Each structure stands twice: as structure tokens, then as C-alpha cells.
Amino acid sequence: MSTHFRSHSPKGVSPVSRRDFIAGSVTLVGSYAIPLPAAEAEAEDQALRPQVKRLIEAMAFLGEPFTSAEVSELDGASIEAIVRMLDRRCLLEVHINPEARVSVSPGSAVPRLVEQGWRCFLVKVLNQASATAPLQAQSPQGRNVYDRAEKMTGPSRPPQTVSAADVADRWLELAMFDASPMVPALSGTALEYRIVELYARDRGKREATIGFDVGAASRDLSFRGTVPLIFDIQPSSNVLIEMRDEHGQPTVGSLLIRDPQGRIYPAKTKRLAPDFYFQPQIYRASGESVRLPAGTYTVEYSRGPEYLTKQASLSVPEGATPPAWVFQLERWIDPSQHGWYSGDHHIHASGCMHYQSPTEGVLPEEIVRPIRGEGLAVGAVLTWAPSYYYQKRFFEGRVSKLSTRDTVVRYDLEVSGFPSSHSGHLVLVRLKDQDYPGTKEIEDWPSWTLPVAQWAKTQGAVVGFAHTALGLDVKSTDLPNYEIPPFDSVGANEILVDLTHEAIDFLSLMDTPCIPELNLWYQLLNAGFPLRAGGETDFPCMSDERVGAGRSYVQLDQQPQGDSGYDAWVAGLRAGRSYVSDGKSHLMDFRINGQLVGTAGSEVHVEAAGTARATVRVAARLDGTPNERIRSQALNDPPHWDVERCRIGTTRQVPVEVLVNGVSVARTPIQADGSVQEISFEVPIQRSSWVALRILPSSHTNPVFVLVGGKPVRASRRSVQWCLDCVDKLWAVKSALIREGERAAAHAAYEHARLVYRQRLTECETG
Question: Which of 427, 345, 355 is nearest to 391 (CA)?
């Protein structure tokens, strides 16, 4: 708004001249001026000048600085000159009347934006109410393009909350700039200026309706609470990406693009496929592009935890075709050179952080991108309850046609959001048929897990439990510990029963707290069950940071490709010829007396008690400076597994431990400098035992079973008793949730489990 005054005025307000205002004898109220006493006029003058200094600093920080001539002119200028200069940059004027009602009108600045980029404008605030609340901006065009479901999981047939027209209309992002040197709250002075940041997803002429408020019920009751503006959005440029792997070959990698103010590109809330709005990074294949306005950017690029995260400063020129951005990726380790291939068996294309409409999750070509971009050799995309009927059509009973020479992807199933979910979520990989016999909807499936696991096993599937620790939290941090968990959630609860029926191949680690995960695993191993572990992410539910945050490394003779390669990787997972890892530490080629883990049933036979020799190739990488954000997190807080948690003090060392029956019997530190080191241990074996290695909590091998005199592992009477007590607790908690018609069969299965544990109690050699 200009400083010209109308010749008419409301009751009690006298028309005054521009000269009177300039002299400081009046202050503006909307389109009128109210005479001010001299002392108050001086106070307003003193309040405005510090604002100008803060605005100059803030606009320089945001990359749209005042010119040196403007800064010189503003320094010491009259109030009229300051107002005139600031008004030129004002996109909107906000009037707060004495009742704190807020109305809005257009300002003098030309509403011009840039496609896929941010612009900053001033907002003039005429504050007759002396309000000191935060000034907040809203626009229907500024809503997120994806409405989050009220519940994280959502229904299997989600309501259509966002239409394609909604997505098209939500092209604007806006935010008040409240970082230093600005503050969220208004100062309470009669006149001040704020900064609004605007981001445009599209180009051309677009209209947006913008409004402001200073709290509940402050919007003007008439139509003056919002104002429509037609923006002229100038086009930005497509920047070609060349992403090259360590061999110079084209690949997919991750990019985190920030401008000098730290703003992320593309803007997260306006991202469309194939980019995910809930991640800061995007993924690009060589030959693809990203659209950016002219400017300078800092770009972090990588390809998962086996690669270094590198940084580059790159620019997009004004009015010219930008040169290609070339990224040469660099590994710090390549486990595949040693025959170990990474995979994540628990990835989702719908539910949780994925949007549910208008497309009910993401398409195969969109979920494959981050799997490749994180350097995974294998990815299992699991359909589950949210958007089940839409997503299940991508199941083919074989690997996806989108698989590549370096990444194999297959759709399978997680039994989550099904009637049996209360007893734990089952991961079913390598299914031939995803429809349980005699069912038409997921509501028809069994209400406990054993029938589902047994059905999957009949068709050659590999079966495991997901997010193990949910419902297993206890106070103790000992490993093992003997507190009985509450079994009040959806982790590996009914594994205690199903395992006695030989229906389970593995449990999952790494996406939930490590103590309850490992405690359950160690107890079952001590009871003599040769249970294997796999690493998972449960993306984007337990973690939306990246695919492959938890992963399994399986030993294979060659890179897995096609159906046979996928089958070989899954077979290695089932056999335990693998280790789990966050990708930042590695335990390769774990052997006992020369026998590789996961071969020959993972059994090493010795005639008498004595010493076994454990060998391993180990590597880990830590930055020289500790990451205090991760180190300060409690064990129950994510990231649950991360090599930073293993750091010994402030050194660059991590400990490698040898476990016998869940107890650490030897420990040696290694330098976490990324080098592959061969180490060995002499392991005392007193009776039939299982042996494993770990860098806790970052990586863990599967066990090797050292059988003394041909006797099976019965490592701990106390562990078997814990399992038996847990079955009783489990039935008390879960039986009422099992359908009445299935309860008799479930009771018989639970009783079978009790008999197995009671028998093993008699076979244990030690308490």
C-alpha cells in the first residue's frame, strides 16, 4: 500500500496530509492516518529502523539482497523514504484492526515467481491491535499434494481424499521466514515488515488465494481475509544428471540439493512421482534431469552406505542452457568383491508415509528407483493391507521386469493388517500364489499366524517375522534377559509357537530396538532352534529415511540376476549364509574351524570339548568426528542400529565380539577406517553351542552350531523355561483375538509348543 491518504475517513479519524505523516505526527491505519503524539511518533520511528537492519540481513541470507545503493539509501533515510522503498518489495499488506481481525490486500510488488524455485517478498503489517502473536500465512494452493491418512496403516480400500485436480491445484508452497534474525511473533508496533517465502511447482500464469491470521478467530469476517493473486511464473531449466558408478558406468544415485539458505530442492511438499515428499534426497539415473532455477547449489551425492557421501558446489546459469552435472561415485567398500550381496526383504510401495490417493501408493518403476539408488542387489517389495487390492496386481510370482543387471526386485507379501496381525506380521517371500485358499478378501484370512505360515511353506516360500521387537519391550538391557514381555503389539510374538511346528525360517532385525530383538533370537537359539536372522528396513513405515537402512548380505558365487538369482539369494537367507548390517560395518566370511557360516547346515562337529577357531573378514567406517546426534539417542530411539553407536569413546574404533550361546566371550577393537581386516579368535567350547560374531549395534553374523559328541544344542535350561513361560503369556494375551471357530486348532498348536519346550527342558545340560 502507498502512503497516499483518502480524502474521507471513518468516524473519529481525521484526514491528514502526506506532509503530516512524513513529519512523524501520524501513523497509518489501513487506508487512513491517525494523528500521533510526538513521543509516540518518535517511538514508532525508533522501532522501524532496527527492523530495516534485520530485513537487510534476512534478505541477504535468503539470496535476494537489497542492492548496495538501496542499503546506502536506507541507512539514515527519512521514514517516508524507508516506507517507499520497502513498499516496492511488498507483495501483500496485512491490516490488523483493534479487534485483532485480519484483512489482506495486494501490495506494490509484481507477483512474479520462478518454476521449481523460491522467491521472497515483504509483507507490510499495519497492526492497530498491537498484536504480538505469530503472523501465519495460508493458501489452499499451498496444501501438501498428498493428504496424510488419519491412521498410519489406512484401510485396504482407502478413501479417495485427493483427486488429480487437487494435486494440480496445489502448486504453491508458502512460509513466513522466521529464522534468525527474524522472529515468529509480531513486535506489536503499528507498522512493521515481515518476509514471506513462495515456491512455485509449475510455470505460466497461476492464481493463488492467500490469507493471514494471528491466531484462532482472527480472520476478517468479510471477504477481506484473503486476496487472490495471479502469478507470472517464469520457467526454470532442466539440469542433465550424469551419475556414474565406481567403474564409470551409468547408474542411479541419491542427490540432496540445497541452496545457500539450506532450502531443499525440489521442495518436499510439492514433489510428484518419482520423488518422495517425505525424504530430503531424490534419486536420479544417469541421463535423467532435475528442474532448477538459476542459482548456486550444494549437492550431496551417494549410493547407499557402501559409498562415500561426497559434496559438490554447482550452479545453474541465468538465461542459458546449464551444463550437465556429473557425479562420480566412490565406494569405501564393495562386499560383492568378496561374494556378499546386499538385500532388503521388507520394502513397501503403499501405506505409512506413501500417499494413498489418487494412485494408492507408488508404481513399480517408482519404488525400484530408491532400491537401485541405495545400491541394493535384491529388493523384496511387500504388498500389505493399505491399498492391497490396487498393489496386489503387481505380484507376478517372479522377479519384476524392471530388474536390472545390478538390482533384482520382486513383489511378495507381508501379512500385516490381516486378521492374524495381532500375533505378529509375517514376511512371505518367493510366493507362487498370494491368495490364501478359500478367501476373497483379506478379512477372510486366518486370525492367527501358523496356518498362514504353513500354507506359504507348502509352495516353497521362505517365511519370517517382521519388526521383531514390537510387543517385546522389557526394562532389562541384559543379553540374554529373562523378563517376560507383554506381547502387546505386532512383532515376532507367535514365533514361539510357529517355530516348534517348523513353519518359520527367520526373524527380522534392525528396524526395532536391538535388545528385545536379540534377546528373543538368543533365547530361541539357546533352546536349540536353528533360527536365522535377516536385516530389514520396513520402508517407509518403521523408517522412511532410506531403503536398505537394515539389510542382509548373502554369500553367492555370482551377482544375483533374474529368478534364479533371486531364488539363490533367498535360499542363502534361509540357510543363514549371511550377516545383517546397516551397511556401515561388515562381517564377511565368518568361519568356524574353516567352515563357512550357512553351509552344511551351519554345523561343525567335534568329538570333545575344546577350542574352536573363528575367523572373519571385518570392515567398518566411522568419520573422524563423532556424530553426537546419534550417540546421544537412547537405545529405543532410531536409528536402532548404526555403527556410530559402536564407537569406543571418541576414537575411530569399534569392538568385534564373539558370542557363545548369547554371551560375549571375547572382544577385540578394530580401526573403523574402511579397510578390510582379517581377524581370528580362539573360542572355548564346553558343550554343544552356537557361535556368532557382532559389532553391536551395527552388524551381526548368523550362528554356526558347534556340536560336541553329536549332541544337539540345548544351551540353557533358563532360556527354555523363558520360552515356555512366554507361550503361556502369549495365549493369555492373544487367544481372545483368535476367531472362535479357529480357537480349538490354535489351542492344540500352543499345547504342542508347550510339550516341545518341556521336552527340551529335560535335555538341557545346564541351567
Answer: 355
Residue 230 burial (C-beta neighbours within 10 Å; 0-12, 13-18, 19+): exposed
Q: How far is CA 232 from CA 65, 200, 203, 271, in A?
A: 21, 10, 8, 21
* Predicted confidence (pLDDT) at residue 104 exceeds the cutoff of 90: yes
Which string of b and e fits 653-671 if b means at least 16 CB within 10 Å? bbebbbbbbbeebeeeebe
CA dihedral 707, 713, 717, 723 (to 10 degrees): 160
Region for residue 332 given its phi and psi (left: phi exceeds 0; alpha: psi -120 to 50; beta: otherwise): alpha
Q: Would you give the distance in Å from CA 345 to the centre of its chain?
A: 17
Q: Which contiguous run of DSSP H or E holds residue 382?
A: strand 378-383
C-alpha cell at 201: 511447482
Which sign does the torsion angle of CA 629, 635, 641, 642 carry? positive
Q: Is 581 exposed, middle or buried (0-12, 13-18, 19+ CB in 10 A)?
A: buried
Burial class (CB in 10 A: 0-12, 13-18, 19+), 358: middle
Q: Which residues contact 756 (CB under 8 A, 6 or more apart)?
A: 500
Q: Which amino acid belongs to residue 197?
A: E
Between 61-75, 545-559, 724-738, the lowest mean confidence (pLDDT) is in 61-75
3-state secondary structure of 758: helix
Chain CA centroid to CA 709, Å: 49
**Assigned C-alpha cell, 280:** 530430503
Q: DSSP code of 209? A: E
For residues 490 and 415, is the Cβ–Cβ distance under 8 A? no
pLDDT digits (tens, 9 = 90+) for 483-495: 999 999 999 999 9
Q: Torsion over CA of 495, 496, 501 and 505, rounded to 10 degrees?
A: 40
| Stretch 629-652: mean pLDDT | 94
Domains for the chain: give ranges and CATH numbers: 18-234 (no CATH), 237-328 (2.60.40), 334-414+547-581 (no CATH), 417-465+467-535+716-767 (no CATH), 585-713 (2.60.40)
Would you call 402 exposed, middle or buried from its count of C-beta atoms within 10 A (0-12, 13-18, 19+)?
middle
**What is the predicted pLDDT for the residue at 61?**
82
